[in-house]
Amino acid sequence: KRNGMIGNIYSMGLALQALEATRKFYAPREWDCAQAFSVVYAHDYQQPMAMAQVLPALVGRSYLDVAGLDCAATKNMSPGRQLPLSPVLGTHGIPRAPIQVHYSITNSLQGKHFHYSTSVTVPSDSTLLQVMEVAAEENPQTFSFQTEQTSWGPYVTSIHGLAGSTEDRTYWQFLSAGDALDEGVGTYKPHDGEHIQAVFSTY
Fold first, then answer.
1. Annotated binding residue at 171?
2. Most exposed: 99, 106, 112, 128, by fewest CB within 10 Å?
3. What is the mean pLDDT of residues 149-171?
4. Is 63 annotated as a binding residue?
5. Sheet (strand 195-202) strand order
6. What pLDDT score was predicted for residue 130?
């Protein structure tokens, strides 16, 4: 239904491993792996955790294969024979054209409801986190936010003083054109004219 995406880009690695490992038991129909792998090939992975989970699937293995590895056969493998990692290509030193991103925060779930919108100008190729930082710099009373670092990158814990809670099952959800983002704020790169919504939500 989502052109090969399974959950989101973060869940793809483990999903591919699970489906490959259980391929002969999969029902009610054969799993079309080509569509799912095309999503992985097209994505520019930057989070170490996401890379660690997707790499086994790319070499036709899963974490289950660890129990059967022949370490004696691989201990003398020279660095030159190991699979190379793709370099991250950048445009260092080249000025990036500015883009405008529309950003709004909405809470109609808890306490005093609010909705605020702004437009910020950032260099192209900026992450959503950088968009949020510019909005907070320009209007700290409204768009201030807090994050915590996780193995998947920065996680937004609160915006405008309103924090998500595991007890209340609340969190800040990020959407574009009404659809939840497939990446986190530290890696998602909005395009010019895009409207990013942060909505206080429940799960």
1. no
2. 112
3. 94
4. no
5. 114-123, 98-107, 195-202, 170-176, 179-180
6. 97
Task: Burial-class residue 191 by CB neighbours within 10 Å (0-12, 13-18, 19+).
Answer: exposed
For residue 34, tell me if it sits in a domain.
Answer: yes
pTM above 0.85, yes or no: no
| Pair (107, 187) in one structural domain | yes
Q: Tell me whether residue 19 is annotated as binding.
A: no
Model confidence pLDDT, tens digit, residues 72-110: 655 554 444 443 433 333 445 566 799 999 999 999 999
**Helical H segments across the chain, by residue range:** 12-21, 33-42, 48-58, 71-74, 128-138, 140-143
In this structure, are 195 and 104 located in the same domain? yes
155 is in an annotated binding site: yes
Positive or negative CA dihedral for 46, 101, 11, 28? Answer: negative
User: Does residue 72 lie in a domain region?
Assistant: no
Whether 5 is in a domain gets the answer no
- Annotated ligand binding at 76? The verdict is no
10 appears as a binding residue in the annotation: no
